[in-house]
C-alpha cells in the first residue's frame, strides 16, 4: 500500500515519553538474538540449493571488520588495528567463502544489491580492494550501467587516494559516511575526530566521479551534546545536501558494549535534552525538504527510497531500507548475516576461527534460524508497517489465507490502546500509523513480536 508522504512527522512529547521503551530495531524478524546453534553449515547449504529454483536476484553483503581507531560509542563487530596488511589474508578468505558458497548457488542469478559494511571497509588498501572486487566479479553476475544498488560505507579518515575512482569504475554508485557530530568537544569525547572539510571533500569527489547517492549518519545523545551544538552540526551538514540522512539515537549500554565504558555517564545528555535535540532536528530536516522514511532515516523527495515508499515497494533488510525486495541476501565475512529463502544464518564472529573454518573447506556458520509460517506472516506485517506505516487487512488475508481480527485477537486490545492514544487508526479493513505515531513505529511493531517474552535481551529505547 502506497503511503501519503505529504503528512509531516508530528513530534508529540507526551506520547513519546509514555511509549519510549526498549525494543528491537527490526532489521529482521525474528531478531538475531533468537537465532540458534542448531542451524549449521548443512542447513545453509540446503537453503542455498533450494533457493536456485526461485531464480530470485541476489543481494551481497561483505563485512569488513577492521578499524584504525576505536569509536567509543560503537556497537559494531570490529577489529581495531593499525595493521593494514591484515586485510590481505582477510580478502583471500572472502574469496574462499564466495567459492564455497558458489558451489550451491546458480552464478547466473543477477546481483541487484551489493553492500560493503563494517568496521571500516575503506581500511583495506587499494590493492586488497581491487583483489576483492575482482573476486566478486569472478564468482557472481554483476549488473552493468548502474542498474544495481551498489553501496559502501566510507570513513574519510581511512581512504587512500584513488580508491573512490576504483570503486566507481567497478560499479559502486552509493556511499555512506559516518559523521556523527561535528562539534570538536563531542568528537574528542567519543574518540572520532573528523573535520567538516575532510567530509565535504570526499562528498565532492564522489559526486564528480558520478556516485548517484550520498548518505550521511548522525548520532544524537552523544556525550557533551547540546541542542545548540547539534543544531550547528545539522546546519553544516545540510549545506552538503546529502540525498539521505540517518539520525540515530545513541544507546548507552556499557555492560553490553565495553568500549562505551570510556564515556562518562555524567556527560550524556538527559532524556529531556535528547528529545529536544531530536525534535528540533526533525523540524529542521522537514523545513529543508527532507521526508521521514522511518526508523531514523530521512531522504530527499526525489531519492529512490522516497519514490519506493510512495509507490509501496520500499523494503528493509539487515543493511537498512532498500529498493530491492525479493532477493536472497548472501553474507560474507566474520559475523555477517544472510537471509536465504526462509532462513537466516550468521557467520562465526571470531576472526581467527572464521578464517580457520574456511581453510578447512567449510562455510563458517555459527547460528541461524528456519522461519515458520507464523514467523513469515509476522515478518511481513512488521516489514510493511516499517516501510508503509500502514497495513491492508484484505490484502494480508488473501496472501496468508487468514482473517486478521481472528488471527490476532490476542493483541487487538493493545492495538486499540495505541489507537486511543493516537499512535494509529484501526478499523475492519486497515491499520494506519498516524503522523505522531511514526516515530514510535518500533513500539507498534512490538505488538506483533511473538518472541519478546521468550528471551531476556537488552534493547535500546525506541527513541
From TrEMBL:
Alphabetized Pfam families for the sequence: HemN_C, Radical_SAM
Entry-linked InterPro entries: Coprogen_oxidase_HemN, Coproporphyrinogen-III_oxidase, Elp3/MiaA/NifB-like_rSAM, HemN_C, rSAM, rSAM_sf
Occurrences of domain Radical SAM core (ranges): 52-288
GO cellular component: cytoplasm
EC identifiers of the protein: 1.3.98.3
Reactions accelerated catalytically: coproporphyrinogen III + 2 S-adenosyl-L-methionine = protoporphyrinogen IX + 2 5'-deoxyadenosine + 2 L-methionine + 2 CO2
Cofactor: record remark: Binds 1 [4Fe-4S] cluster. The cluster is coordinated with 3 cysteines and an exchangeable S-adenosyl-L-methionine.
Top EC class of this enzyme: oxidoreductase
Predominant place of localization: cytoplasm
Protein name: Coproporphyrinogen-III oxidase
The organism of origin for this protein: Acidithiobacillus ferrivorans
Organism phylogeny: Bacteria, Pseudomonadati, Pseudomonadota, Acidithiobacillia, Acidithiobacillales
Gene: hemN
Amino acid at each position: 500500500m502506497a503511503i501519503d508522504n505529504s503528512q509531516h512527522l508530528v513530534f508529540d512529547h507526551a506520547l513519546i515519553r509514555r511509549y519510549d521503551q526498549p525494543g528491537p530495531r527490526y532489521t529482521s524478524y525474528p531478531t538475531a538474538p533468537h537465532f540458534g546453534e542448531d542451524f549449521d553449515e548443512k542447513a545453509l547449504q540446503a537453503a542455498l540449493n533450494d533457493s536456485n529454483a526461485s531464480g530470485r536476484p541476489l543481494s551481497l553483503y561483505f563485512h569488513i571488520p577492521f578499524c584504525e581507531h576505536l569509536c567509543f560509542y560503537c556497537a559494531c563487530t570490529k577489529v581495531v588495528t593499525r595493521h593494514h596488511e591484515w586485510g590481505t589474508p582477510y580478502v583471500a578468505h572472502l574469496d574462499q567463502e564466495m567459492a564455497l558458497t558458489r558451489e550451491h548457488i546458480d552464478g547466473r542469478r543477477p546481483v541487484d544489491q551489493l553492500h560493503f559494511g563494517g568496521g571500516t571497509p575503506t581500511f583495506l588498501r587499494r590493492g586488497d580492494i581491487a583483489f576483492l572486487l575482482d573476486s566478486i566479479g569472478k564468482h557472481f553476475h554483476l549488473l552493468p550501467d548502474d542498474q544495481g544498488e551498489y553501496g559502501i560505507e566510507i570513513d574519510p579518515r581511512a581512504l587512500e587516494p584513488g580508491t573512490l575512482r576504483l570503486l566507481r569504475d567497478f560499479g559502486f554508485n552509493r556511499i555512506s559516511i559516518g559523521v556523527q557530530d561535528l562539534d570538536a568537544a563531542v568528537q574528542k569525547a567519543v574518540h572520532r575526530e573528523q573535520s567538516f572539510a575532510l567530509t565535504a571533500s570526499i562528498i565532492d569527489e564522489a559526486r564528480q566521479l558520478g556516485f548517484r547517492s550520498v548518505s550521511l549518519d548522525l548520532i544524537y545523545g552523544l556525550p557533551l551534546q547540546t541542542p545548540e551544538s547539534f543544531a550547528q552540526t545539522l546546519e553544516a551538514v545540510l549545506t552538503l545536501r546529502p540525498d539521505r540522512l540517518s539520525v540515530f539515537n545513541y544507546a548507552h549500554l556499557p555492560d553490553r558494549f565495553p568500549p562505551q565504558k570510556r564515556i562518562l555517564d555524567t556527560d550524556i545528555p538527559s532524556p529531556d535534552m535528547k528529545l529536544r535535540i531530536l525534535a528540533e532536528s526533525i523540524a529542521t530536516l522537514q523545513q529543508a525538504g527532507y521526508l521521514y522514511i522511518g526508523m531514523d532515516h530521512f531522504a530527499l523527495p526525489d531519492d529512490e527510497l522516497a519514490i519506493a515508499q510512495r509507490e509501496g515497494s520500499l523494503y528493509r533488510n539487515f543493511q537498512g531500507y532498500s529498493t530491492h525486495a525479493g532477493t536472497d541476501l548472501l553474507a560474507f565475512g566474520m559475523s555477517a548475516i544472510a537471509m536465504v529463502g526462509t532462513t537466516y544464518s550468521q557467520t562465526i564472529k571470531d576472526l581467527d576461527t572464521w578464517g580457520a573454518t574456511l581453510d578447512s573447506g567449510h562455510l563458517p556458520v555459527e547460528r541461524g534460524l528456519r522461519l515458520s509460517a507464523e514467523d513469515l506472516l509476522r515478518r511481513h506485517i512488521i516489514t510493511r508497517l516499517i516501510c508503509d506505516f500502514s497495513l491492508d487487512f484484505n490484502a494480508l488475508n488473501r496472501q496468508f489465507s487468514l482473517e486478521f481480527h481472528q488471527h490476532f485477537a490476542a493483541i487487538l486490545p493493545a492495538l486499540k490502546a495505541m489507537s486511543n492514544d493516537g499512535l494509529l487508526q484501526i478499523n475492519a479493513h486497515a491499520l494506519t500509523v498516524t503522523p505522531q505515531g511514526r516515530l514510535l513505529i518500533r513500539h507498534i511493531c512490538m505488538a506483533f513480536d511473538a518472541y519478546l517474552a521468550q528471551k531476556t535481551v537488552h534493547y535500546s529505547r525506541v527513541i
